[in-house]
Here is the input.
Amino acid sequence: MNFSFSGKRIAGVLTVLPANERSFTDDMKDFDFPEEKSLKLKKVMGYDKHRIVTDETCVSDLAVHGFRHLFDRGLVKPDELDALVLVTQSPDYFMPATSNVIQGRLNLKHDMLCMDISQGCAGFIVGLMQAFMMLDQPSINKVALVNADVLSRKVCRKDKNSFPLIGDAACITIVEKTDDRQPIHANLKMDGTHHEVLIIPAGGFRMPSTPETAIVKDVGDNNYRAKDNLTMNGTAVFNFVQVEVPPMIESLLQQAALTVEQVDYFMFHQPNKFMLHKLADRMRVSRDRIPSNIVENFGNASGATIPTNITFNLAQPLLNGTLKLCMAGFGVGLTWASMVMAVGQLGFCEIIDY
Amino acid sequence: MKTVQEVLKGIRPEFDFTTSEDFIADGMLDSFDVITLISELDQNYGISIVGADILPENVRNLEAIEKLLHKYGIEP
Here is the structure.
């Protein structure tokens, strides 16, 4: 499905990371895996360190910290925000929506639309699309898009499939109207028949959490996890990404009448370095134009990886100039989505600790 | 340049890869071994095996791996 927008821009991006950093060497001690093999895994996948919350920190804690940073420095005025879109898969509660919780904790105005979206790795693109659609309304001039997750709390430390790569983060992206009518192109596809390849089986209404679902079991391949934990079929996800993403990008660029060379950077979701290098090679894009250093530095925080990729790798060029970025997210759902747009002259583009 | 058997031995030295017709079903390669194998084949032969080719059936046994390499112009 193709989308196009115009008259919208990204005004600033902030990443909030938990200050707690764990190293892969620490993680290895919990794996039922020979040290030599773990070190090979580290090298091939690009695992090194990741930021995860230490206690009962929730999505709203990270988000509120980020908003206060922006408000205190005058980078965003609270009353200018007309909508708050939170994309998360680790909400504070089943109900109410965590976007309402954030709004309340910040005492934001009542004349405001708050919305939670359950999306993961493609959540930045889905969230931007939603924000752009809201901006078509005369009463909405500025939207705060929050991509935040604390999924490390749902990953078993003895699961070498998922624990070394998981990260927690919140990113706040301010999106607003602009007189610049440069087109923004996007596309999106979903395939719910494979919803089980990335799933937290227990804890919802289908399989409520019980003492039984909390028992960590040997699930084969030297991995251990409970039904309360996040489960990823790594092979299925890898194959899905390698098959679906290159044609999606090709189709997007065709829609935008752009060549690969006319894009400055391909800012993709960050599952692991190996997967991103394979995508780069397949798309015949030099690896330096697809940054792949987020997992090794911070971990994979689901929908927050693309904005973190932007704040970590492109802050200076985007504060001082403008770049043509092709962004793509792919994962849970299954969902895969991409967007190409000019991003630049940002009011802020930084990373802070929580 | 290493042979395919030498690459496999480097990943799982405890197994004899000439005796199995299905390394995965026989528990000789797990999912991370497959990723390591592809990475080492890339380096050893100076190629980049595309992601869509990284399938269990393409690394199931010596014949399958050699067929995969042949696709990239390599005669192992």
Observations:
- Chain A has a mean pLDDT of 95.
- The radius of gyration of chain A is 19 Å.
- The longest strand of chain A covers residues 8-17.
- The interface with chain B takes residues 37, 40-41, 44-45, 160-161, 221-222, 234-235, 238-239, 241-243, 274-275, 277-279, 281-282 of chain A (CB under 8 Å).
